[in-house]
């Protein structure tokens, strides 16, 4: 994710949802940006289930 605005845009969509279902952000980035119960996953790892 290129900068803080992109991270806020991607993760901000889930911040207002107060349920117990898992929330995922799937990108091509290799870094783990998981925060506040929102799970970051690399799309290649996710597809290959690593």
> Which class of secondary structure composition applies to the elements?
alpha+beta
Order of helices and strands: HEEH
Number of helices: 2
How are the strands of the largest sheet arranged?
1-2
Uncertain residue segments: none
Overall tally of structural domains: 1
Shape: flat
Average pLDDT number: 85
Distance between the termini: 20 Å
The rounded Rg comes to 11 Å
Beta fraction of the residues? Answer: 15-25%
Characterization of this structure:
The chain is α+β, with helices and mostly antiparallel strands and 50 residues long. The protein has one domain. The protein has two helices and two strands; from the N terminus they run αββα. It has a two-stranded parallel sheet with strand order 1-2. The longest helix is centred in the first third of the chain and has 12 residues, at 4-15. The radius of gyration is 11 Å and the shape is flat. It starts with a helix and ends with a helix. The model has no long low-confidence stretch (mean pLDDT 85).
């Amino acid at each position: 994710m290129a900068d803080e605005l992109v991270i806020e845009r991607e993760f901000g969509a889930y911040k207002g949802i107060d349920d117990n279902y898992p929330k995922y952000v799937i990108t091509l980035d290799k870094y783990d940006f998981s925060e506040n119960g929102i799970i970051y996953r690399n799309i290649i790892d996710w597809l290959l289930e690593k």
